[in-house]
Amino acid sequence: MITKPKFMTLERFIREQEESFPKATGEFTAVLFGMTLAAKLVWREVSKAGLVNILGTTEQINFTGDILKKLDLFADETLYKTMYYSGHLCAMASEESKGLIQIPDKYIGGKYVLIYDPLDGSSNIDANITIGTIFSMFKRVTDSGHGTLEDCLQPGYRQVAAGYIIYGTSTMFVYTTGQGVHGFTLDPSVGEFLLSHENIRIPQRGKTYSVNEGNFNLWDDRIKKYIQYLKEINGKPDHPHSLRYIGTMVGDIHRTLLYGGIFMYPADKKNPNGKLRLMYECNPMAFVVEQAGGKASNGFQRILDIKPTSLHQQIPIFIGSPVNVTLCEEFLSGKR
Ligand code: AHG
Ligand code: MN
Ligand code: MN
Q1: What's the predicted TM-score (pTM) here?
Q2: Domain spanning 10-197 has what CATH number?
Q3: What would the pLDDT profile of 165-174 be if each residue is shown by its tens digit?
Q4: Known catalytic membership, residue 66
Q5: Catalytic annotation on 117?
Q6: Residue 56 has pLDDT above 90, yes or no
Q7: What does the domain layout of the chain look like in residue ranges?
Q8: What's the mean pLDDT when you consider all of the chain?
Q9: CA distances from residue 238 to 260, 324, 325, 336 in whole angstroms, order as listed
């Protein structure tokens, strides 16, 4: 009997998935391959972050003669440098750039748009806490030439791929192309991402909620009531739920995906439209979570159905196990 290969690399997995589409041209696969290289390059730098004070800080020359960049700028530049010349993209957009990132004329004409948050959780870098990278891909809607805003500002349900890289106790690449969610763990000794979590399914419900509760007094009454409910059983103070909050969306959602529960960043008095960005953060994470059997909402509407109006648009987000997110929506609409 032929058994499954023990070591399935990310690249082989992507290629095998492509082979199930007879019409595939390989372009989409090439963009995903580019992302795996970018992930390794960023990981290499992330793993040195703690050495920055020894090797030299930003603006200083390190021992190899390079100027050390801040990690988020490094990640941003790395993604650009890995992806711009592929010939398969017509435009890119980064959380770190105000407008659309144009592809140089020489490489223009690709079918896809790549949108990314190069470093998620940047406030956690210096404390050696989990950080991430998030990406999202759309097929262009214009015919040819340089990509336009119209190519980027498509609702999330039109994403053709999305995923994240989590730089935690180990580094993982988790992605979906609409055929389930698959996770690969980096084996640093061989520099390969190996399949470790095939077809991830989020638990239907979970006992963990994840939110910056320091904002409690800035929330409206409905969200306060929901959070209060999570701390009580039948009106009595108890401990039915646990609170976990890293402050890195990638880390908080990755945990939610595996253990169940809910992650949220509601609107508040400081951020009346929410804080997290639709294009760079919410859409890709919503695609992943839905593909794993979960739910992602802005409180009233499915995130993937929102028609974006600008690249840096912010929205409230409630995402995770379907039972938890539905209950939260009931509180937000006043049904409870
Ligand atoms: P980024 O580092 O890309 O700017 O994103 C940070 C985000 C997100 O990762 C996290 O969930 C949230 O900001 C944390 O915000 P608070 O510090 O307000 O809780
Ligand atoms: Mn972010
Ligand atoms: Mn960021």
Answers
A1: 0.94
A2: 3.30.540.10
A3: 999 999 999 9
A4: yes
A5: yes
A6: no
A7: 10-197, 208-332
A8: 92
A9: 20, 18, 21, 20
